[in-house]
From TrEMBL:
Keyword Coiled coil: yes
A GO MF term: transposase activity
GO biological process: DNA transposition
Keyword Transcription: no
Protein's recorded name: Transposase
Coiled coil: 56-83
Keywords: Coiled coil
Length: 84
């Protein structure tokens, strides 16, 4: 699997947004069309939320981390409240 730099992915999406076709970009840069569509989903905002796919994924990850921290704090509070 080839890893591409974030700025390269964003450049491809921007080129597509300026009117270049996905098929043409895929051919020119040796990418799969599906890859470009995936990058578009990642970097272009969703009209219903205004968030990019990357922002939504980052928020889900942060939310999971915060929920985990909250559970730890609840358990700690229960332990400390029993000792007094």
């Amino acid at each position: 699997m080839t890893r591409y730099e974030e700025n390269f992915k964003q450049m491809i999406v921007e080129l597509n947004q300026t009117g270049r076709s996905v098929r043409g970009l895929a051919k020119e840069y040796g990418l799969a069309e599906a890859t470009i569509y995936k990058w578009k989903n990642l970097y272009l905002p969703d009209p219903s939320t205004g968030l990019t796919g990357k922002e939504a994924a980052d928020l889900r990850k942060e939310n999971a981390r915060l929920k985990e921290e909250l559970e730890i704090l609840k358990k700690a509070a229960a332990i400390f409240s029993r000792k007094t």
